[in-house]
């Protein structure tokens, strides 16, 4: 029996749930080709950051104003041309996006990362014009202002989504963290604001302190399968309760991880850390193992399996809520002291 691995995400039919998450692997066209050849069903380009957009705008302004105050004609409105060949980081991103759409057969999803409208609307337009298959809005915001209320924080997210939704026709996925007082309610509000899909969850990198140099340091630590449980829980809870595609990211490392997420209700499983560790061949391995497992367990398709272990479908729906916490504590094997 052959199994059908196809899934639907953001209105697109994908060959499998295996999607490449935004990572440094996506910075070169050659890497993107290898990921497609290895079995990626779609890929998300690395994010274009809000700070990068602002920096590029400042740099361009500085270049164009280079003669002001030096040449007499500059004071009368002279606007010098930018140096020949001048290209900023945003331009390079859009060029890569266009090249990838031309070279690849799979969907290429552009990504914007930030926390305010800023230049996002403008660049969402540019990404649409460059041929992006969809747009992932990666909202990375730490609510550190004690004078800003939870409602104000949530409103910031909703206004941002609404602004981008109003600017483009592209399918729009919103990638957020889990730190809301009511995640389920916020998920519904994000969809109402214009999100076609939710990517759960953004992985907030935490700062560290160097006790010798007395400096705050930042470093990237790759995820592990243990981190899968947070998106697994919320996808299982949200499946059937929000009218949107559901994508899981963070902690996707094994074939079992992907199968669990699909059973919980995920349309796709996005991975970056596993690919950084193992390279594109990880996709080929997981795809083959997934098909073999499904055939062995008599699943005909991903769609048949999708959501079969969501909260709505589970024999014990409370297992995804407080009962799971109690059972974990009660069943933990206490070591002999």
Give a verbal description of the structure.
The chain has 337 residues and is α/β, with parallel strands linked by helices. It has one domain: Aldolase class I (TIM Barrel, Alpha-Beta Barrel). 40% of the residues lie in helices and 15% in strands. It contains twelve helices and 13 strands. The protein has helices at residues 29-38, 50-64, 89-103, 120-130, 150-167, 183-193, 229-238, 255-264, 273-278, 281-296, 302-305, 322-331, and strands at 7-9, 12-14, 18-20, 42-44, 48-49, 108-114, 134-139, 172-176, 197-200, 208-210, 215-217, 245-249, 268-271. It has an eight-stranded parallel beta barrel, surrounded by seven helices. Helix 5 (150-167) packs parallel to helix 6 (183-193), helix 7 packs parallel to helix 8 and helix 8 packs across helix 10 (281-296). The longest helix is centred in the middle third of the chain and has 18 residues, at 150-167. It starts with 6 loop residues before the first strand and ends in a 6-residue tail after the last helix. The model is unreliable at 55-88 (pLDDT under 50).
């Amino acid at each position: 029996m052959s199994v059908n691995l196809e899934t639907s995400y953001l209105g697109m039919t994908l060959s499998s749930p295996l999607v490449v998450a935004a990572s440094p692997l996506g910075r070169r066209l050659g890497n993107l080709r290898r990921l497609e050849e290895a079995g990626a069903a779609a890929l998300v380009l690395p994010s274009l950051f809000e700070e990068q957009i602002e920096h590029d705008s400042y740099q361009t302004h500085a270049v164009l104003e280079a003669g002001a105050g030096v040449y007499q004609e500059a004071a009368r409105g002279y606007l010098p041309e930018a140096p020949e060949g001048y290209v900023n980081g945003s331009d390079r991103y859009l060029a890569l996006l266009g090249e990838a759409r031309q070279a690849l057969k799979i969907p290429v999803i552009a990504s914007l990362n930030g926390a305010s409208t800023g230049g996002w609307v403008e660049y969402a337009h540019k990404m649409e014009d460059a041929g992006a298959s969809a747009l992932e809005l990666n909202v990375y915001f730490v609510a550190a202002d004690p004078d800003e209320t939870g409602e104000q924080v949530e409103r910031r997210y909703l206004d941002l989504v609404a602004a981008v939704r109003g600017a483009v026709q592209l399918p729009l996925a919103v990638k957020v963290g889990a730190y809301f007082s009511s995640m389920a309610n916020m998920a519904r509000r994000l969809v109402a604001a214009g999100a076609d899909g939710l990517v759960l969850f953004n992985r907030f990198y935490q700062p560290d302190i160097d006790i010798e140099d007395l400096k705050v340091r930042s470093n990237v630590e790759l995820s592990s399968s243990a981190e899968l449980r947070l998106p697994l829980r919320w996808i299982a809870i949200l499946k059937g309760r929000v009218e949107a595609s559901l994508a899981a990211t963070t902690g996707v490392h094994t074939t079992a991880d992907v199968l669990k997420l699909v059973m919980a209700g995920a349309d796709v499983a996005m991975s970056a850390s596993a690919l950084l560790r193992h390279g594109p061949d990880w996709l080929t391995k997981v795809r083959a193992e997934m098909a073999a497992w499904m055939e062995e367990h008599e699943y005909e398709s991903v769609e048949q399996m999708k959501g079969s272990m969501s909260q709505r479908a589970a024999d014990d729906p409370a297992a995804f809520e407080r009962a799971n916490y109690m059972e974990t504590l009660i069943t933990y094997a206490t070591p002999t002291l």
